[in-house]
Design brief:
Number of domains: 2
CATH topology of the largest domain: Rossmann fold
CATH class of the largest domain: Alpha Beta
Distance between the termini: 25 Å
Strand content: 15-25%
Strand order of the largest sheet: 3-2-1-4-5-6-7
Number of helices: 15
Structural class: alpha/beta
Helix content: 40-55%
Order of helices and strands: EHEEHEHEHEHEHHEHEHEHEHEHEHHH
Largest sheet: 7 strands, parallel
Length: 387
């Protein structure tokens, strides 16, 4: 059997949740079955070149990208010259162009993974949103990262439910399973005493992550626990400078620390913390939350469907009402009290997520879909060819 050629189309390979997921998927796929390539619209790649993962850039510029016929012509030419059996798109711009490619019948099978609703606002219908929702009907398989996201795609983007399947994101937990946490060393480097409360939030500095609400809740927490510290882990995002300015103006530089972290460093920082929290108003699937649970941390997050689908109240952590920063501060303080009293009710959570949300499980589910759909297409082609 010839290898199935899969091309993954994505905006860029800058370090982010979807990008890290794709990188892990391509590394863990069975390369005796699949021949994989990653194609980026924009020239940005934070990941190293390896013998089994090739990253190619189309060198697009993110300006009026939907209206520039040059980009459309270039991507059509690329797929005419570089054929594949399956095209799998990730994130908005890549989805847009990938859907056009499928509508023009330039690829045999098109998969699309929908990671969030932020890129697809549907409060106001526009010409672009109508075009996008028309194009998505040409997709052969739509993968959503949660059941909440699946409902959004079916109800808001009007996709047939038999096309849409949920495959939870998977994480490469190897660095968590075999990690020796050096809690004291990391805390020493951060200038934090062993007895002080260290709260961590892993999130890029984007609007939907709502660092403003998190900082407001932390200010209220300081009234209860004056020596608490907050570690914000994030390597990029449009609002990073704004958040740094808020911290400085609020005179919180002694209590709030910002660090960029590689994927290898994140588990170390999590291992040095006491509690994970965030105040995000939109998560397709909480990769950062799952990593925190895998590191053995209790969770304090909003009671939104995206969180409630993967976390259990009183088992993995505590919920607060979105927007209620007083409640968030109170729930963090209550969790800290539980820690001090030795009541770690979340002690079994890490074991659960290590099995349920592993990259191995994700790739296994994805492989089953690839093989099933590819075989169906081949059989259908043979039947039609014989008529």
């Amino acid at each position: 059997m010839n290898k199935i050629k899969i091309t993954y189309l994505i905006n860029s390979m800058q370090n982010g949740g979807a990008e890290c997921m794709l990188w892990d998927v391509v590394k863990h796929l069975d390369h005796s079955l699949f021949e994989c390539k990653i194609v980026c619209l924009f020239n940005a790649n934070d990941f190293p070149e390896t013998p089994i993962v090739h990253v190619y850039s189309l060198d697009f510029v993110q300006k009026r990208i939907h209206k520039n016929p040059y980009y459309l012509k270039k991507i059509i030419n690329y797929f005419e010259q570089n054929t594949c059996d399956i095209l799998h798109t990730h994130l908005c711009y890549a989805d847009y162009f990938g859907h056009i490619i499928r509508a023009l019948n330039k690829v045999p099978l098109l998969y699309t993974t929908i990671h969030n609703t932020v890129e697809w606002p549907r409060k106001h219908i526009t010409v672009l949103s109508l075009f996008e929702d028309t194009l998505i009907q040409y997709v052969d398989r739509i993968i959503t990262v949660s059941e909440d996201m699946r409902r959004f795609v079916i109800n808001e983007r009007h996709c047939r439910d038999n096309k849409v399947v949920t495959i939870y994101n998977g994480i490469d937990f190897s660095s968590f399973r075999h990690l020796e946490y050096n809690r004291d060393l990391i805390r020493s480097k951060l200038g934090i005493d062993a007895s002080e409360l260290l709260i961590v939030c892993t999130a890029q500095f984007r609007r939907e992550k709502r660092h403003d609400l998190l900082i407001d809740a932390f200010v209220k927490l300081l009234q209860i626990i004056p020596n608490a510290k907050l570690l914000l882990l994030g390597s990029n995002g449009a609002l990073k400078n704004n958040i740094e300015e808020i911290i400085q103006k609020s005179r919180l530089t002694d209590n709030i620390i910002i660090r960029s972290a590689t994927r290898e460093q994140v588990p170390q920082y999590l291992g040095a913390a006491d509690i994970f929290t965030m105040h995000s108003e939109n998560e397709g699937f909480g990769l950062a939350l799952i990593e925190a649970v895998a590191a053995g941390l209790p969770i304090v997050v909003p009671d939104l469907p995206c969180f409630k689908e993967i976390m259990n109240e009183g088992i993995d952590g505590l919920f607060f009402h979105f927007g209620d920063t007083n409640m968030q501060a109170d729930k963090i303080a209550l969790t800290w009290k539980n820690i001090q009293n030795g009541n770690c009710f979340w002690s079994q959570s890490a074991k659960r997520v290590l099995g349920q949300f592993s990259i191995e499980q994700h790739v296994s589910n994805l492989t089953t879909l690839y093989l099933k759909d590819y075989e169906y297409r081949i059989n259908k082609k043979n039947i039609l060819g014989g008529i």
